[in-house]
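cache lookup: miss for this entity combination. No prior model stored, computing from scratch. Input as submitted by user K.M.:
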Amino acid sequence: MRARGYGESKVKSPGSLICSWEIGIFKQVIPLSTTLTVSMMSPKEVAITINNLTKRFEDVTAVDGLNLEVEKGELFGLLGPNGAGKTTTINILCGLLKPTSGSVNVGGYDVQKRPDKVKEMIGVCPQDTAVFSYLTGRENVELFANLHAMPREKLKKNTEDLLKKLGLLEEANRHVRKYSGGMRRRTNLIMALVHDPEIAFLDEPTVAMDVQSRHAVWDFIKELKKQNKTVILTTHYMEEAEELCDRVGIIDHGKLIALGAPEQLKSKFRTKNLEEVFIQLTGRKIREEL
Amino acid sequence: MNFQRVSSLVRKDLKKMIRQPATLFLIVLFPVMLTLAFGASFGAIGGTQSATYQIAVVNMESSGPYQQWSQHFVENLTHIELLNIQAFSDNETAQADLIQGKIQAVLVIPGNFGQSCDSFWTAPTNPSLWVNTTLQLHLDSGSMFATQAIPPIIQQVLTATLYGTQPISIPTPIQIGSPSLIQASKTTMFDYMAPGIFAYATIFLTMTVAQSFTEDREKGLLRRINTTPTTPTEFMISQAISNMAAALIQVALVFAMAYLVGYRPYIDVVSFTLAFIIVSIFALCNVGFGLITAAIAKSSGAATGISFIFIMPQMFLGTFVGAALSPSAQVAGKFMPSYYVTDALTSLFLRGAPVSSPTILLDLSVVTIISGISLLLGILLFRKYGKT
């Protein structure tokens, strides 16, 4: 299955221009007049390309023939229950895991061939909070800024700005081991973004956060969108995806089963929310799998 | 290599050493407490008490034209306050007393001792004319201090017998490893233990490195660092630098504590610098062992246990403890890198050997080679098996 969120022109044979528009399990062949309208739109730069990606762990197939393109500046949500393959996909995109087959291209570089180039332009917020508990919040953030070799002035400015935006400035000089769970998660997020990455992978950034913190993070993620950053967001929270994402891809058992803008999917499946879209597609609730 | 990345990782590790109580204890407090405890028990706290060792001397050269050499040697031994010399007419009786624990050592002076000394003085620059001989020394293996203390004292007295109190460095028919004289009357048991304590403290880096890597792996921190442009080389260099720094801090602390309890080694700045270098290289060896442990261990708890596979043999066979063990255990000790560190530091601190001494250079070479192999193996195993 090849899923594309935006129209793509394909020249099948000389003189016959057909635009194939595939969303999830649907495929439409659009009349030529419509194709011309689409082709006149300015082409958007692709930030991430996933081609026929498969990842197997012994006898378990975590990702099964995934195809996906994410455009630059897009906030893309990867939805699905636990074990669906979201984190595995993110890990492959970051160069942490090697695919069993297929290829991934991030920021114009093949992740397997040029992981060094990819790592320079990405920021990764892991699902499980990964912070050094014996460092202060500020030291954790500055450490990761240094690992990205940021100039000192920019490092200081970004650290201050992000700590302030996520409400950690006053607590920045306390050791992280004294932080609450929500504060740790916010620190976790800042560490991923302090170096101002072009592409951010946010793996369940708001899980286990209180409502106030979650909304602060949402506002922060919306700001990334305004800065034309490409963001891949995985989440269990359907309302989060609906609130933030330009497009979402729903994954189940390693396969992409639906793709499109939240409103588009809700309209297509005639549902009130994305949770119901998932139920229609799989017959299960997304949270039941938690 | 990016210096900014390496320095930030080193700073992070040094902060960990200071801020994590368990790490702080192993790296800083443990060596301090160990040194103070041993210094208080065996050193000169509250006075300059010296140990006295009962030594049986069996002089096989009781007559002959050269007997004044052996008599002179025995007289010199008698003048050492640390030693209580008892003359025995036969080796069997002396050995019986040694077995019963009445004495700590038996020294057998061979019948050609005087002839050997005389041959040296007759032709000091022509070794082909020398009569080579060997002093037999039997030690009570149950007394770790006797085994540590007595051999270097005998060597020094032998040196003084041949040359007087001013050491010279020319070949002789009797192998002398120590060019300077120990002032035995001020030497305590702790003086013989101190070089081993330097190695002893550093050995525990194996545990801290293994714990650090497994904890960081469990918490996803290694994976997280792996999503940054930091290369494996930069990461490993930062580990090497921070652990070498830890070892240097340990040596400085142990030395300071030892000095407080009256330890006064006969060394200069060059020797002291070399001691730091040897211990730093040894730290790399333990980083390697720590990485091997982390590659095997599934959790930080398991890493603590597995690290003792490397720690215990090095502690018991390679440091001051090893001197009290059986001959076979002492042979096994020669396979421990800590043995060569202790030996080198003993030569520097206790015997006052120069840095160019063959013994020290050999020890340094062995420690360097073992450390290189350990570190390389550790990196390879951790990269292959330890990342997940």
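stored under new cache key. Residues 273 and 380 of chain B are 31 Å apart (CA to CA).
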